[in-house]
Amino acid sequence: MRDVIYLDRMEQAETLLKPQRVEVLRQLAAPSSCTEVAEVLDQTPQRVHYHVKQLVKAGLATQVSERKVRGVQEGLYQAVARSYWLSPRLVGRIGSRDELALGHLVDLAEQIQVDVAALDRSSELPSIGVSGEIRVLPEERQQFLTELQTTLQDLFTRYGGAEGDAFRIALACYPKGEDR
């Protein structure tokens, strides 16, 4: 089972975004039969089987084994991931894609989700996450943004050669919200 699966196909999102299927998927954290899941969710096995088949078809769950119960083959199913991230592109966005627009931050956040979901977490990964808050007076905003851009451009120039391990650097700078 993977930690994260990134969903960027509408069929997957439509399959996942049904409350009953989310509950079925939660029950499939460990291999389970439709009958076992039905008992926990107080549903009929047929109804759970329908939802499980839809989850399997969308690639969100898989059949991991079979067993014989009272002379009938019964499938055991399991979710393929612990978490599922939906692409913001599935919802769509109207407006500017300018690098100073908030829509650009949504694109950046999506790229980070795609990259992180694809990482192999079975080994130690050289990565760093930094978060902080900086307070800038309105009259100093442009100077701050220019200095930040210059500093990052210097790093990109200094370490931007064609050799070595590739790292993605993403920085998001946005108003904090109500408490500006």
TrEMBL record:
<dbReference type="InterPro" id="IPR011991">
    <property type="entry name" value="ArsR-like_HTH"/>
</dbReference>
<dbReference type="InterPro" id="IPR036390">
    <property type="entry name" value="WH_DNA-bd_sf"/>
</dbReference>
<protein>
    <submittedName>
        <fullName>Helix-turn-helix domain-containing protein</fullName>
    </submittedName>
</protein>
<dbReference type="Pfam" id="PF12840">
    <property type="entry name" value="HTH_20"/>
</dbReference>
<dbReference type="InterPro" id="IPR036388">
    <property type="entry name" value="WH-like_DNA-bd_sf"/>
</dbReference>
